[in-house]
Amino acid sequence: MTTVLVAGATGSVGSLIVKNLLERGADVRALVRGSSKHKLPTHPRLTPYVGDLTDGAAALQPHVNGVDVVVSAVQGGPEIIIDGQRELLRAAERAGVHRMIPSDFSINLYGYGYGVNVLSDLRRTFTDEFDSSTVARTSVSIGAFPEYLLADVHEILDPMAGTFSIWGDGTRPIDITTIPDTAAYTAAIALDPGTAGREVHVVGQQLSMLELRNEVETASGRRWNLVRKGTLRDLRAEIARRQFTASSMFEYLALQYQIAMFDGTASLRDVRNADYPDVLPTSVAAYLAGSGAAHFAVPETNWRQNEWPTAV
Ligand SMILES: NC(=O)c1ccc[n+]([C@@H]2O[C@H](COP(=O)([O-])OP(=O)(O)OC[C@H]3O[C@@H](n4cnc5c(N)ncnc54)[C@H](OP(=O)(O)O)[C@@H]3O)[C@@H](O)[C@H]2O)c1
């Protein structure tokens, strides 16, 4: 039986990777911070290992002794994605672990260079650690989560204004995979020894922004006016402008993902869905007919200008 340690086992993606690994019969160790242990489900093949990526390799090593594959689904800044994952990798090396899946789960961030996306840069920097490692890297690329792509942060859907905004001509296919499908594929890939040393691309559905708008109109039963915000050149200029004035990277991060999706540099290549025929990815239409319908809701409280909320 394969033993897999999952770091970030309490997160949105990690918790579902754990669920899928258990369904596939693996022995699963959840690396979990003490304060988060209560978030783990109970299962006879799931064992909590209390630890923190910032504890260092020596403290992490007992957790990975006897493990075949490490899967990381952590989230955070450089102290987690670069330094923390490096400590986990060092521990895995000492324990003789065969493979590690780092916390990428992204657009094809190896399709473009440094300086395009601040979070991709962290992941690429950590990837370099594998050059001198005995642990083989398996990277999983899936495109964008629709849970994020259609949320406020991307400034695409605006339910109040009834608009669907795009940069560029909106005709290039982009890669969209739900969080549950990402987890299902990742569990299958973690248990597939043939993925050692490979970048594995899998996807839920590929469709253009114009096609995505059609899906949104069909699912919501309402019209979404198309707003063309500018060319891709305009998008680059907007990112540069925001980088200069932003108080937080979250003011331009989503646009950094969009430019790489819309100019094609982050497109998935050699999509391997056929290697995992038992994973049946969710179509965008099915997503929007289910939990994705929440994207269409107009926020309940919208204060008009100069109107103060009543104290309750
Ligand atoms: N493609 C896309 O559109 C897209 C969108 C969003 C995210 N992602 C990617 O998906 C991956 C997972 O993201 P997520 O949204 O699932 O993250 P999340 O829900 O925030 O979960 C993060 C996990 O990391 C754990 N963690 C954080 N710091 C840690 C530390 N020092 N030591 C041990 N564990 C630590 C957290 O534990 P606690 O429970 O203790 O906090 C939690 O389990 C990331 O690589 C992210 O970039 C992709």
From TrEMBL:
Statement: the UniProt record of this protein carries the keyword Kinase: no
Position of the signal peptide: none
Keywords on record: NADP, Oxidoreductase
Protein name as catalogued: NAD-dependent epimerase/dehydratase family protein
Species, as recorded: Micromonospora zingiberis
Domain of life: Bacteria
Lineage: Bacteria, Bacillati, Actinomycetota, Actinomycetes, Micromonosporales
Xref: PANTHER family: NMRA-LIKE DOMAIN-CONTAINING PROTEIN-RELATED, NMRA-LIKE FAMILY PROTEIN
GO molecular function: oxidoreductase activity
Domain (NAD(P)-binding) ranges: 8-102
Membrane-spanning ranges: none
Entry keyword tRNA-binding: no
Gene3D superfamilies: NAD(P)-binding Rossmann-like Domain, UDP-galactose 4-epimerase, domain 1
